[in-house]
């Protein structure tokens, strides 16, 4: 088999490190031609990865980190670059498989560029799909590129759909752990701190997605992701709280059967599935002992406790630029919560208010999707969110 050319965006993050781990276990530089790796401020780690995998290029997202990256790579032969334009240039370099594991809206432009070059995109960066799903999938269709889901729920749905007819799908159920506060009394949520929201009951992830799990904005984004990836009507998509997080998603068919994907809490399963697709390769994940686990439990995903779910449902119904406004409003609200400018439950108030205000301009929100306009709506939504945050502080 020909050696595959691989690029990993966000290599130093939680998904990125798991991807590097799998690439290394599957032979590293002996098996793959690593084209580019990208990271943020942790240039020491980025340089280590790039040297170990003999990458052609290492890119830090931040210009002020370039000198440190160059120093860390001195004598290695790995090229160093920095900034948004360098990320996009890296995405345009010929590759067979690109992992998109940047956190946030910043992942959109490199992912889109990769698809425009016909490259298979393993997509962990859910924000880009929420903000601009039709744009990404439209680019993939136009350029004959594939998007492979990496978010565990969507990888699970993807796997439960193998060999099935989409016309026979009646419902898709994605599960939620319930996050840090699933057992808290609702009235205590308003006082939850960023530290409390940053600890996940079942596993370790980047800080932003961990807080999004506590607020259920993560699940809200995943509802929208489900609609975009699989083209499923919003009315057929459900969220279900499953504290053990062993079933990642289920697909219900018109004959009443439900195909559930069961697996350990280890993102290397979903990453490995996308890396080796359409084959199933042996992966270094725990084998579940179900007799020892004993039971799995389920609870309804309550929209009073987690208004993010209700807002996401409205966004799915609205379509157009609502996803871009939702994502930007959510990112800005999360920044404000982290900066202690607003409380935990005010994040959903901010997002709902941003959507309300932007929806007033129906001409803007319903028009055809373009990258330029997505960037514009993203910008407007962040400005609006900042205004709303200020008003809440008074
Ligand atoms: P993380 O914070 O651990 O890592 C993010 C990566 O992006 C790092 O390499 C960082 O240096 C880089 N980065 C940060 N800001 C950047 C910017 N402005 N421009 C370019 N690069 C930047 O995040 P993570 O938990 O690995 O999540 C990555 C993506 O995968 C997110 O979209 C997240 O929602 C999604 N995801 C994560 C998990 C998980 O288990 N961690 C599961 C499903 C989906
Ligand atoms: Mg997920």
UniProtKB/TrEMBL annotation:
<keyword id="KW-0521">NADP</keyword>
<feature type="binding site">
    <location>
        <position position="218"/>
    </location>
    <ligand>
        <name>1-deoxy-D-xylulose 5-phosphate</name>
    </ligand>
</feature>
<feature type="binding site">
    <location>
        <position position="126"/>
    </location>
    <ligand>
        <name>1-deoxy-D-xylulose 5-phosphate</name>
    </ligand>
</feature>
<feature type="binding site">
    <location>
        <position position="127"/>
    </location>
    <ligand>
        <name>NADPH</name>
    </ligand>
</feature>
<feature type="binding site">
    <location>
        <position position="152"/>
    </location>
    <ligand>
        <name>1-deoxy-D-xylulose 5-phosphate</name>
    </ligand>
</feature>
<feature type="binding site">
    <location>
        <position position="41"/>
    </location>
    <ligand>
        <name>NADPH</name>
    </ligand>
</feature>
<comment type="pathway">
    <text>Isoprenoid biosynthesis; isopentenyl diphosphate biosynthesis via DXP pathway; isopentenyl diphosphate from 1-deoxy-D-xylulose 5-phosphate: step 1/6.</text>
</comment>
<feature type="binding site">
    <location>
        <position position="15"/>
    </location>
    <ligand>
        <name>NADPH</name>
    </ligand>
</feature>
<feature type="binding site">
    <location>
        <position position="125"/>
    </location>
    <ligand>
        <name>NADPH</name>
    </ligand>
</feature>
<keyword id="KW-0464">Manganese</keyword>
<feature type="domain" description="1-deoxy-D-xylulose 5-phosphate reductoisomerase N-terminal">
    <location>
        <begin position="6"/>
        <end position="133"/>
    </location>
</feature>
<keyword id="KW-0460">Magnesium</keyword>
<dbReference type="InterPro" id="IPR036169">
    <property type="entry name" value="DXPR_C_sf"/>
</dbReference>
<feature type="binding site">
    <location>
        <position position="153"/>
    </location>
    <ligand>
        <name>Mn(2+)</name>
    </ligand>
</feature>
<feature type="binding site">
    <location>
        <position position="13"/>
    </location>
    <ligand>
        <name>NADPH</name>
    </ligand>
</feature>
<dbReference type="InterPro" id="IPR013512">
    <property type="entry name" value="DXP_reductoisomerase_N"/>
</dbReference>
<feature type="binding site">
    <location>
        <position position="219"/>
    </location>
    <ligand>
        <name>1-deoxy-D-xylulose 5-phosphate</name>
    </ligand>
</feature>
<feature type="binding site">
    <location>
        <position position="222"/>
    </location>
    <ligand>
        <name>1-deoxy-D-xylulose 5-phosphate</name>
    </ligand>
</feature>
<feature type="binding site">
    <location>
        <position position="222"/>
    </location>
    <ligand>
        <name>Mn(2+)</name>
    </ligand>
</feature>
<keyword id="KW-0414">Isoprene biosynthesis</keyword>
<keyword id="KW-0479">Metal-binding</keyword>
<feature type="binding site">
    <location>
        <position position="200"/>
    </location>
    <ligand>
        <name>1-deoxy-D-xylulose 5-phosphate</name>
    </ligand>
</feature>
<feature type="binding site">
    <location>
        <position position="42"/>
    </location>
    <ligand>
        <name>NADPH</name>
    </ligand>
</feature>
<dbReference type="Pfam" id="PF08436">
    <property type="entry name" value="DXP_redisom_C"/>
</dbReference>
<dbReference type="Pfam" id="PF02670">
    <property type="entry name" value="DXP_reductoisom"/>
</dbReference>
<feature type="binding site">
    <location>
        <position position="40"/>
    </location>
    <ligand>
        <name>NADPH</name>
    </ligand>
</feature>
<feature type="binding site">
    <location>
        <position position="12"/>
    </location>
    <ligand>
        <name>NADPH</name>
    </ligand>
</feature>
<keyword id="KW-0560">Oxidoreductase</keyword>
<dbReference type="InterPro" id="IPR013644">
    <property type="entry name" value="DXP_reductoisomerase_C"/>
</dbReference>
<feature type="binding site">
    <location>
        <position position="14"/>
    </location>
    <ligand>
        <name>NADPH</name>
    </ligand>
</feature>
<protein>
    <recommendedName>
        <fullName>1-deoxy-D-xylulose 5-phosphate reductoisomerase</fullName>
        <ecNumber>1.1.1.267</ecNumber>
    </recommendedName>
</protein>
<dbReference type="InterPro" id="IPR036291">
    <property type="entry name" value="NAD(P)-bd_dom_sf"/>
</dbReference>
<comment type="function">
    <text>Catalyzes the NADPH-dependent rearrangement and reduction of 1-deoxy-D-xylulose-5-phosphate (DXP) to 2-C-methyl-D-erythritol 4-phosphate (MEP).</text>
</comment>
<feature type="binding site">
    <location>
        <position position="177"/>
    </location>
    <ligand>
        <name>1-deoxy-D-xylulose 5-phosphate</name>
    </ligand>
</feature>
<dbReference type="Pfam" id="PF13288">
    <property type="entry name" value="DXPR_C"/>
</dbReference>
<feature type="binding site">
    <location>
        <position position="151"/>
    </location>
    <ligand>
        <name>Mn(2+)</name>
    </ligand>
</feature>
<feature type="binding site">
    <location>
        <position position="206"/>
    </location>
    <ligand>
        <name>NADPH</name>
    </ligand>
</feature>
<dbReference type="InterPro" id="IPR003821">
    <property type="entry name" value="DXP_reductoisomerase"/>
</dbReference>
<dbReference type="InterPro" id="IPR026877">
    <property type="entry name" value="DXPR_C"/>
</dbReference>
<feature type="binding site">
    <location>
        <position position="153"/>
    </location>
    <ligand>
        <name>1-deoxy-D-xylulose 5-phosphate</name>
    </ligand>
</feature>
<feature type="domain" description="1-deoxy-D-xylulose 5-phosphate reductoisomerase C-terminal">
    <location>
        <begin position="147"/>
        <end position="230"/>
    </location>
</feature>
<feature type="binding site">
    <location>
        <position position="213"/>
    </location>
    <ligand>
        <name>1-deoxy-D-xylulose 5-phosphate</name>
    </ligand>
</feature>
């Amino acid at each position: 088999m020909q050696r595959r050319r691989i690029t990993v965006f966000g290599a130093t993050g939680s998904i990125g490190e798991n991807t590097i781990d799998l690439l290394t276990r599957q032979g590293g530089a002996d098996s793959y031609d690593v084209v580019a790796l990208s990271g943020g401020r942790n240039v020491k780690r980025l340089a280590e990865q790039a040297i170990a995998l003999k990458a052609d290029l290492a890119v830090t997202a931040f210009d002020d980190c370039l000198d440190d990256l160059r120093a860390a790579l001195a004598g290695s032969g790995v090229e160093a670059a920095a900034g948004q334009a360098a990320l996009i240039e890296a995405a345009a370099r010929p590759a067979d498989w690109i992992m998109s594991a940047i956190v946030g809206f910043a992942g959109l432009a490199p992912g889109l560029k990769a698809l425009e070059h016909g490259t298979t995109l393993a997509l962990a960066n859910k924000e880009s799909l929420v903000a601009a799903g039709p744009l990404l999938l439209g680019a993939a269709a136009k350029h004959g590129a594939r998007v492979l889901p990496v978010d565990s729920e969507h990888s699970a749905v993807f796997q439960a759909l193998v060999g099935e007819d989409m016309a026979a799908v009646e419902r898709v159920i994605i599960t939620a752990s319930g996050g840090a506060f699933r057992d808290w009394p609702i009235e205590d949520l308003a006082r939850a701190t960023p530290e409390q929201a940053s600890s996940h009951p079942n596993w370790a992830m980047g800080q932003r997605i961990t807080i999004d799990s506590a607020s259920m904005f993560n699940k809200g984004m995943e509802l929208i992701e489900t609609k975009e990836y699989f083209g499923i009507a919003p009315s057929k998509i459900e969220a279900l709280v499953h504290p053990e997080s062993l079933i990642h998603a289920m697909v219900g068919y018109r004959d009443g059967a439900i195909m559930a994907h069961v697996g350990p809490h280890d993102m290397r399963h979903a990453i490995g599935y996308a890396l080796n697709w359409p084959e199933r390769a042996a992966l270094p994940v725990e084998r579940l002992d179900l007799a020892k686990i004993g039971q799995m439990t389920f609870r309804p995903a309550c929209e009073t406790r987690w208004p993010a779910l209700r807002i996401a449902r409205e966004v799915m119904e609205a379509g157009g630029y609502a996803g871009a406004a939702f994502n930007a409003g959510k990112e800005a609200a999360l920044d404000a919560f982290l900066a202690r400018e607003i409380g935990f439950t005010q994040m959903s108030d901010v997002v709902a208010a941003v959507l309300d205000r932007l929806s007033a301009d129906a001409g803007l929100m319903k028009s055809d999707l373009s990258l330029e306009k997505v960037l514009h709506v993203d910008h407007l939504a962040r400005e609006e969110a900042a205004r709303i945050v200020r008003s809440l502080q008074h």
